[in-house]
Amino acid sequence: xxxxxxxxxxxxxxxxxxxxxxxxxxxxxxxxxxxxxxxxxxxxxxxxxxxxxxxxxxxxxxxxxxxxxxxxxxxxxxxxxxxxxxxxxxxxxxxxxxxxxxxxxxxxxxxxxxxxxxxxxxxxxxxxxxxxxxxxxxxxxxxxxxxxxxxxxxxxxxxxxxxxxxxxxxxxxxxxxxxxxxxxxxxxxxxxxxxxxxxxxxxxxxxxxxxxxxxxxxxxxxxxxxxxxxxxxxxxxxxxxxxxxxxxxxxxxxxxxxxxxxxxxxxxxxxxxxxxxxxxxxxxxxxxxxxxxxxxxxxxxxxxxxxxxxxxxxxxxxxxxxxxxxxxxxxxxxxxxxxxxxxxxxxxxxxxxxxxxxxxxxxxxxxxxxxxxxxxxxxxxxxxxxxxx
Length: 389
Hints:
alpha+beta, six-stranded mixed beta sheet, globular, N-acetyltransferase domain-containing protein
């Protein structure tokens, strides 16, 4: 696949499928050249030697790379899955891992990569393509929304809570926490979560059976008078897929980390959580399928999160240093944000999801018709698939 771009007339960009044997060394260089971050903070990703780690657990996926001459200068990944969206069963394609090395940016290579991936989506019966970025990422939004016709449709919040390996958190004595079998968890999700949730995966059974899924837990009160309140969540061990490291951070964060390390024993004695060392590589547990109902469900959500904290504190030899939850800011997402334990300085509320119709694009006179259809439908809560993290 050859695309037109604007650097030099005698150079052409060639888009092809990633070849692990041929490309892995150049891919390491591309990743290092495209670290995520801004002037203050950089988030380094350690793929543990597997450039495809973020899409290996999806039902159908691909990775495309861009060559200019003998140089690999860009890449993009995509995955396909069946979900429920606006009360319909559709196939959605997730766009992720878009990278173009700095010397070759602003030449149209990113646009070519996305369009070629969209063509691959269409060939695999995808109805909608979607992607996630930060709301202040002007370059990404300019490309997807401004140039490629995507529409912003959700603004979830990413909540991050540090794991304190020094002690177990005490759980309330009046709350029962029970681990569900896979069949029971899938039935619970389909009965109680799917009817009010967008992007609920049709293959929830496969997610729950995945080797990275650590299990599903439900919490409820042992007092029969409070039986109408309950909460549920599942845990995905992202530490087994890739690890992260903060490369640069504000001076205040560095100083606070040092102070926490020095007085960690006293913080433990006072029942407080120390700030973990995130400047060496660390893993995380992703809490997904978080859902709660009933007038007293807030404490149940917190109890489940504390239960997972205790799991992380004793597992993986300390590899898991934070718990991550992504909740929708709409509907009951705001309630979950108040219930889920998190540190504001580690969390962010600027995640932005954008979507684009693929199959129906030719049938609509312009994108405005899709926008009218989209916004007239009342959205449910958002299910964040752990395979997309």
